[in-house]
Amino acid sequence: MNDTKNRYVTVLWEARAKPGREAEMRAFMTAAVTPSRNDQGNIDYEAHEVEGQPGTFIIYERWENRDALNRHLSAPRMQELVPRLLEMMEGSIEEGIRILQPFRPAR
Questions:
Q1: What is the domain-level CATH number for residue 53?
Q2: How many domains does the chain have?
Q3: Consecutive H or E run containing 83
Q4: What is the model's pTM?
């Protein structure tokens, strides 16, 4: 990664609900979106369910810089949400995280 403090950071996070917990996880994620949108440095924070794959969720996030993302991830409410989320989802949170680096073609 070659991001700098002055460069925005985009995160895609994908998670799959355990069988039978799809609606519970959807409701949980819905409730978590608005507080994250209000975190300092947030540009965009949207939760999605993959069409044709019920229970597969993707969160698309954009942050002003890496420091803003790190503040979000270390917020006390996030530390409280993680154990509850792990009960509902398959695998680990880290498995679904992708940090995207913007680039543009040379002119």
A1: 3.30.70.100
A2: 1
A3: helix 76-88
A4: 0.85
